[in-house]
Each structure stands twice: as C-alpha cells, then as structure tokens.
Amino acid sequence: MAENAIELIGINKSFGAVRANRDIALEIPRGTIHGIIGENGAGKSTLMSILYGFYQADSGEIRVNGKPTAIKTPNDAIAAGIGMVHQHFMLVENFSVLENVILGAEGEALLTKSIAKARSELRRLEKEYGLEVDPDALIEELPVGLQQRVEILKALYRGAEILILDEPTGVLTPAEADHLFRILEQLKEQGKTVVLITHKLREIMAITDNVSVMRQGTMVATRKTSETTVEELAELMVGRRVLLRVEKGEAKPGAVKLAVKNLTVKDSRGVTMVDDVSFDIRAGEIVGIAGVAGNGQSELMEAVSGIRKAVSGTVMLDGTPIDLTGQADPGELRDRGLAHVPEDRHHVGLVLAFDESENSILGYHDKPQYLKGPFLNLEAIQKDAQDKIEKYDIRPANPRLKTANFSGGNQQKIVLAREIEQDPGVLIVGQPTRGVDVGAIEFIHKRLIAMRDQGKAVLLISVELDEIRSLSDRILVMFAGRVVGERGPETSEGELGLLMAGVEHKEAAE
Amino acid sequence: MSTPYAKLPAWADYGLIPLINLLVAFAVAGLVVLLVGENPLRAAVILVEGAFGSGQGIAYTLYYATNFIFTGLAVAVAFHCGLFNIGGEGQAYIAGLGIAIVVLAFDSTLPWWVVFPMAIIASALFGALWALIPAYLQAKRGSHIVITTIMFNFIAASVMVYMLVNVLKPAGSMAPQTRQFLEGGQLPKLGWLLAEFGLKVRPSAPLNISFLLALAMAFLVWVLIWRTKLGYEIRTYGFSSKAARYAGISETRIIIVTMLISGALAGMMALNPIMGDQHNVPLDFAGGAGFVGIAVALMGRSHPVGIVPAAILFGMLYQGGAELAFEMPNISRDMIVIIQGLVILFAGALENMFRPTIQGIFASFSPRSVGIAAKGERA
C-alpha cells in the first residue's frame, strides 16, 4: 500500500476570474496529523471542499491511498474513507446522538435495526478512541465540545480513515480543545490520518506532524512541524514579517466612562443570560471579557449598546443612564459617544448587499454631513468612504463595490473605520478579528491600542484568549452569565481557561 | 455550502434572463394553444398585433400597463423593506371610495385639473389607510403581513359592495355603481399623444393622463429608494432587520411608513379606470391588477426601470389576449389567463431556474466577463 493517505496533484479551481486554488500539490502521509494553515481566502476551505466533493477541481488529480480517485460528491468522499467535521456543525438539533449518527446511513425503512447496530458501534468507538457521549442525549442539550465529538463519531461510523477537521477549536474552551487533541492523537495511534485546517499557529505547533502553508491559492510550503517555528509559519502565511505580539505601553486609566451595575439580561426564551454583572470601564483602558461563546458575552454587549432589553440593573455612560428597556435609540447612544462593533458583521454590522459606501454610514446615516434635506448626499458619502478606505487600507479601494465581495478582514475594517472615525468616547468591540486574516489582525489590534492611548474606553469581547490577553489591561471572565473573576493581562492561559470552564477560583488556585 | 455563482454582467442579468424566461413561457403557452387545436404561431401574431398593431391596440395596452405600473411599484416598495404586500388589490379597491367622495362632491363645480390632484390625494390616502392596519399588526403584533393583507382584500371587496349597493348607488338605478361623473371628474385622454406619432386612435380608447402620473411615480419611487434617507432605511431593514436595529432604525416606524407608501401607490391605480375610463365607480374595477402587480414587481426586479416594461408586457397580454379570444373561438378568456399564469410562473416564481446554466455558460466562455458573487468568507 502506498505511504500517502492523500495525494493531490496539480489541483486547479477558479471561481470566475478568481483562482482559488492553483497547481496545488500536497502529500499527506498515512497515520499522521497534517495541519493546513493560511489566511482567510488563501484557498484552504476550497481545497478541502474539493477533497470532500463539494466542488470539483477544474483540473488535477486526487489519489487516495495511492489510487486515483474521482470525488464528485461527498458520498464519493465517504466511500473513499474521507470524513469531514465542519466548522459549523451539521447536526439536527432536536435529534438524539444516535439518530444524528445514522442520518444518511439509515439503511432500511424501519430504524430499529440500524439504531441497534449504531449503538453497539458507538460503544466500540467510545472504547477505542475515548469518544464518550451519551447516545440518547439530544444534540441541543449537549455542550459544543460534545456536539463536535458527535460529528467525529458520524465520520468514523461511516468508516472514515481520513478525517478532515475545519477550524475545530473555534468554539471550544482551552480544556475542551486539549481533550479534542487527545482524541486526535488516539486516532493517529490507531492509524487514522487527520487533516487539521486552522489559522491558530499554536495548535499547529502543539499537535501536527507536518504543516502545509497556503497563500493566495497556492501551496507555498510544507514543513515538518518539529523543524519550523511560529514566526516562520506566520511569515509564510502573510508573505512578510508579522508582529505576533501587540506592542503597547502602560495604560493610563482616567475617569469612569461606562459603569455597569447589577445588569441582568434574559434571552427570548426567558433564560438568564447575563446574571447580576457589574463592572466599570475607565477612559484610556481596554477591558477584555473572556469566555467560551454562549456564556452571556453577546447578550451583555447588546444590552450595554442599547439594542437588547435588560431585566434589571443600570448602565451609566459618562454618568448618565442608558435606556435598558430595549427601546433605546442606538442613534442617540452614538450621539453620546458610544460606538459598537457587533460580533456578527454579516447580519448586524453590515448589510452585505449594500455598496461599501452605503455601509460606511450605517447607523450614522442621519448625521447632517451625509444628508441634503431628506436626500442622501451621495457626493459627501462617497468622499467620506474614500477617505476611510485610504486611512484603513481597505481593499479593493472601491466604495461602489458590493460589500459581500470584500474579504472578511476588509469587511471588518469597513465596520471599524465607520465606528472609530466617529471619534466615540466608548467603543464596544465584539470578536474584532473573527474570520480576519493575520495581516488585518495586526492592523486592527494596533487601531484598538491607539484608541486606548487617545483616552477612549474600550470594551473588548472575544473568544480568542490570545487576543484578550494581548490587548486587555484588565480581563473579566464570564461563565454562565456571571463574571467569575477579574485578572490582569499577565494571568496564565491555564488559569483563565479554568475560570472560563467555570472552575471556581479556589479550586483553580489549588 | 452552496455552489458559488458567477455574477453575470448587468445586460444578461436584466435583459437576457428575463427574455429567456419569457420565451420559455410562450413556448409552453404555445403547447397549450396546440392542445386546443389552434396554430400557436398565428395565435402569437394575433396577440402581438392586437396589442401593438394599431394605435387603438397600443392605447389599450398602455391603459392596462398604467394599472400594473402603480400596483407593481406598490409591491416593489414593500419588497425593498422585506414585506410582501399582497393587498394591492384591496388597497386599490378601497381607494375607489376616496375618489368617489372627492369627485361626486366637486365634479359639477370644479374643472378636472383641480379635481384630479384632490382625487390623487384621496386615492393615496384611502389606499394607505387600508394598508395601515395590516402594517400596524405586523409591526406591533407580528401578525404576518401576507395573511393580513390577503384578508383585507376580502374585507375591501365586501365593504365596496355594501357602499356601492347601499350608499353610492343613485336612487332608482339598477346597477351597483355610482352615478356617471360629470366633466370635472373625467381625465383627459392621451390618444392625441399617439396620434402625434401617426397612429390612429379612436376617442373611446381609454389611455389617459394617469399613465403619465404612473411614470412620474416610477421616477419618484426610484428617487425614494435609492436617493433618500428613508429609502436607505427601508433597504437596510429589508436586507437585515438586525442591521436596522443596530443602526437605530425603528422597526415599527419603517414597516408602517413603507406600507403607507405601498398602499398609497396601489390606491392611485384606481384613478386610471375610474376617472380615466369608466367615469363612475363600478364593482370590481381593480380586476386583479393588484395581483398582477406582484408578478410585475418580481419580473421588474423591484426596480422602476424593470417595472415599467414588465407592466407594458402584462398590458400586452391583457389587450392582445382579448383580441386573441375574439379571433380564435377555441381560445377562451380562461386560456388567456392560463398564458398569463405561465408568464408569471416562469418570469416570477421560476425566475432563477435558468440562471445557473446561463452563469455556467458565461463562465466557461469568458471568465473575465463575470466577477464572483458573494461567497461569504469560506473561499
């Protein structure tokens, strides 16, 4: 048998004029963990989609275990022993684990038989790989870490010998991520091949045997992980030297700009998402809120920025309360100097169908400088957008281009430029670098630090612990809706990780 | 993960695809004609000649198109806000009441050019008010506007029957309609305009100046949607209610204002048949124009530049269809409705059926002519 589980030869794929993959050659030895890194838009996901049969390459050959294999649909990929765990889980929320595992492989009309078979198979997989999960639990009741395990089980149940994981740790706590890595190690020991797509260099260094770097649709290098460094990989990804640590001076905190007291927020189902949270943010400091996604950070952020109703508590902006009834006018809050970069730029922060210039005034569209009576002052809007494009190096530099056609990093720059250029006193930022490439991350981080140094108060919410640690002057950790601890930026990742996982401070100290 | 679509050049997007849809609709309609034993080609010739072959035909075609421009614009404005206004029919019908009130009061004393502006305001007002209740229910109570506007069509029909039979009908008359309008309630015809082009138009041809009002409204709708702050807010809400909330755009206000505008546009449609042609308010004068407006808006991509030609196309089907039913006895009035239905099916509901194929063809012939469309960030 051939030594390589997967071999890609001369893969090309274009979308219109854009060449997403050009002449990709890749060898993945069997029984290894192979990392694929690259910026957003580098073509990683396209390549993996070709391998899994979502797209077909324009030219090139895929060999699985040395045999040329035509993969036209995901079914072909499954038949060839390739399984995929998507970034966004493909699970039916109100089905049980078992039902999800057999979905698409049900066999006959009556389910009894296949369920019984799946149950015994799951037990075997559980023993072999340490993939414990209650087969009768409903997906919606499982934490994300376990949901991901179900995705892996699904792939293994279908006989996958080669497992592709697309950004698997984005939604996990550090502890859950560690557990995932242990599972992957075990899979490797059993002779399975794992392909790990990520943009987190740390993970690559921690777990992979080999790593391939993609940039602008080409495969620029493949290295043995033990023989490379984070700095080299970052440089390969971006094509130039990148500052991985953010350089910043001491914070000089001033007066309290934003004071949150006993804030409690419930979601639409009546579940308490933010539970009696209090904190202050002063001028000239960045306060980071760390936490695993779904622990109330999003709701906290929306309540503070006036677009979500709070049950009780107060939020004072420069000593004056914010309307927390959910009826607040975000326009009025903007006038008072509260700017907000929402977590979800696709549906909240931007209207993707709009021109870049139209998005550059979203939320500020009733400012007199953009209007002529009831009409939009298109000339002023275009000029304003052009200025921001230059200042923030937004590419392509075309204010008339549809926003959907900008990359993630540039979309985020559009939002940041809009909010920062209004010179707010308080900036609330959610996931500023989610889906943003390394080069843009550096730029965005510098901007946030610059805001702080100008004496603005910045509230940073991010699931990227690295980002929180490198930017924040103080870190609040949220778990299950409560602030479970406040730490300095020098706090170790392990300690923050434990807090994020809800382990009490005393236990953490032990 | 969806297939990334190549984006077509504008001429193909707005010209080629609707044309192909239309041709397919006519091909299928041709099969239906064949089925009843008539020659489809001759039918097509009669249809087109009936609509455009004479000054008289053109006047009728444009007269029907006037109705559809108003209702098409009404549907389009609501579309931009993400609302589906199915109630154009009822809004137009009720607007007839507003026109009746104005005209019956003033047609004996004031000239048409004074009565007309008042009637425009009355029709817009009544249409808007009829849209207000569904809009309020949607904005405040979350009652789905599709359901409520449909219901309001039925209510409008019943109200109008009651009003025409019991209130507006002159004493002693057998017909459930208002009295004939006097000169002050009659709009000038536009036959002379066609005559300028050397076409022969009989004075009975119904084309009147509400056609010009419809074109003016098409322009104003364009200004509203793409050039004003309100239009910006409407589009923002239409694309993403969350983004609108974030931007400080009041959901309640934007839904209600948009529906008032939509209802007003639908209401103005009533001017055309009532003051322009019939010179009274009869039963059922809206005649389905509210529904055709949905197809017109779909086909015209909710853009006035698309809506006007789409409205003329449907005007052609109405006028040419009437001729066809007259010339070919095997083809009844109902057959014409089938043909119209096919056009709606292919041009509206199945609008995107041929798109992937055409995009594929374009991409393979000239990759440079197509950019890439939104693929999110997972490229």
From TrEMBL, chain A:
Source organism of the structure: Aminobacter niigataensis
Molecular function per GO: ATP binding
Record family assignment: Belongs to the ABC transporter superfamily.
Any Pfam family: ABC_tran
Name of the protein described by the UniProt record: Simple sugar transport system ATP-binding protein
Keywords: ATP-binding, Nucleotide-binding, Sugar transport, Transport
Gene3D superfamilies xrefs: P-loop containing nucleotide triphosphate hydrolases
SMART domains on file: AAA
Domain ABC transporter: 6-241, 258-505
Highest rank taxon of the organism: Bacteria
Automatic annotation (TrEMBL), chain B:
Segments traversing the membrane: 12-37, 90-106, 112-133, 145-165, 207-226, 254-275, 281-300, 307-325, 331-350
UniProt-annotated location(s): Cell membrane
CDD domains: TM_PBP1_transp_TpRbsC_like
Membrane-protein topology: Multi-pass membrane protein
UniProt xrefs under InterPro entries: ABC_transp_permease
KW Ribonucleoprotein (keyword) present: no
One Pfam match: BPD_transp_2
Top-level division of the source organism's lineage: Bacteria
Keywords tagged on the record: Cell membrane, Membrane, Sugar transport, Transmembrane, Transmembrane helix, Transport
Identification of the protein by name: Simple sugar transport system permease protein
Source organism (scientific name): Aminobacter niigataensis
